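In response to the reviewer comment on reproducibility (Comment 2.3), we provide here a single inverse folding case reported in full, input and output, so that an independent group could reproduce the run without further information from us. The structure tokens appear first.
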């Protein structure tokens, strides 16, 4: 497996995660009979935020991981970042789906997502200037 193959793997997995979260929004929209917005439905609001948060974080992290793959970064780095992103997003989605308040899933999920973005960004900068 090459670095680009590893990038493709995590891109595919996270793409499916975004679609699964979108289906969850649709399910809640149908249940609540809300076509646009959230109405006054807390479960729909949570589903929308879980999906929205994934859409906010996943693409940026994947661009960074893709950039690393294109610069022939070590495959273990690509796997580490890809696994961190995927686990982080799954934990965040699970935690936020359970409650709009604080949760360990949200905390660890956000922390992992931020670490992936920060570590990947620093590697890209280092690669560019060295």
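Designed residues, in position order:
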């Amino acid at each position: 497996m090459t670095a680009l193959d590893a990038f493709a793997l995590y891109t595919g997995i996270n793409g499916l995660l975004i679609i699964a979260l979108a289906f969850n929004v649709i399910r809640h929209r149908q249940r609540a009979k809300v076509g646009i917005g959230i109405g006054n439905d807390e479960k729909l609001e949570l589903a929308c935020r879980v999906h929205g948060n994934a859409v906010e974080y996943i693409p940026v992290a994947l661009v960074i991981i893709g950039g690393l793959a294109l610069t022939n970064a070590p495959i273990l780095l690509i796997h580490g970042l890809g696994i961190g992103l995927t686990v982080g997003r799954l934990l965040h989605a699970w935690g936020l789906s359970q409650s709009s308040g604080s949760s360990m899933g949200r905390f660890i999920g956000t922390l992992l997502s931020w670490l992936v973005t920060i570590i990947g960004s620093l590697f890209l900068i280092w690669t560019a200037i060295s």
